[in-house]
Specification:
By secondary structure, this protein is an alpha/beta fold. It has a domain of 172 residues: Alpha/Beta hydrolase fold, catalytic domain (Rossmann fold). 32% of the residues lie in helices and 13% in strands. It has a six-stranded parallel β-sheet with strand order 2-1-3-4-5-6, with helices on both faces. α6 links the parallel β5 and β6. It is globular, with a radius of gyration of 17 Å. This is Thioesterase.
């Protein structure tokens, strides 16, 4: 089918839901349709069990794809999932995204799965405070905190189960975004370059791990510029397929 709209599928970081991108809905160009992807066990999919295995979660997310052209954006764990989706789509002969936009995550070849080994509540809370992306009201509310910790622990198990497999680079543009005060090594961000045979860009922003909030205006401007480069490609024919499952409205 032919389309004049680009679907931007956004994947959340560990412990978060699709709502982390809700405020972007009206901040992107009108020809971009924001599609926040909800993972199992949160938001609209609260009744489903939390995923704990990377490959199984990627396989679930790949069962259906959006109609027409799309791009993938993910922050932190979401970036790892976005890359995994693109790789699996290629392996299955599906329609690749027009671009991969990855944020706040080392390249897959630089991930350290042992970093996400089983942690107790105190260690999880320390991570939440260190990264600074969790409102104090959540940390002080026992029920909300319990829900957040359970989700974060499951997502850490997803990350711990990831194993990097060598494969040819993807034939698509990769735009990597990073925070200047994040604790991810520069080399680990630059290693995203090895994941593509196409154009690569690494862009730095003010802030720590959640620079996408701390420097949100600059991040959205950068995404807008990156997506604009895809605009000539979105009118080409794409095979029709089922809509993306369980996305936030």
């Amino acid at each position: 089918m032919s389309s004049s709209t680009l679907d931007l599928l956004t994947l959340p970081c560990a412990g978060a839901s699709a709502t982390m991108y809700a405020r972007w809905r009206h901040a992107l160009p009108g020809w971009v349709r924001l599609v926040p992807v909800e993972l199992p066990g949160r938001g609209a999919r609260m009744a489903e069990p939390l995923a704990e295995d990377f490959d199984l979660l990627v396989a679930q997310l790949c069962r259906t794809l959006p109609r027409g052209p799309y791009a993938l954006f993910g922050h932190s764990m979401g970036a790892l999932l976005a890359h995994g989706i693109a790789r699996r789509v290629r392996a299955q002969g599906g329609v690749l995204p027009l671009a991969l936009l990855v944020s706040g995550s080392p390249a897959p070849s630089c991930r350290e799965p042992d970093r996400y080994a089983e942690r107790d509540d105190d260690a999880l809370i320390a991570d939440l405070r260190r990264h600074g992306g969790t409102p104090e009201a959540v940390l002080e509310h026992p029920e909300l905190l319990r829900l957040t910790l359970d989700t974060l622990a499951a997502d850490y198990r997803v990350c711990a189960s990831f194993r990097h497999q060598s494969a040819p680079p993807l034939d698509l543009p990769i735009h990597a975004l990073a925070g200047r005060r994040d604790d991810i090594a520069v080399a680990a961000m630059e290693a995203w370059r090895d994941e593509t045979s196409g154009p690569f860009e690494l862009e730095w922003f003010d802030g720590g791990h959640f620079f996408i909030r701390q420097d949100e205006g600059a991040v959205l401007d950068a995404l807008g510029r990156s997506l604009e480069r895809l605009r000539p490609d979105i009118g080409r024919d794409h095979p029709a397929c089922s809509p993306w499952p369980a996305v936030a409205s």
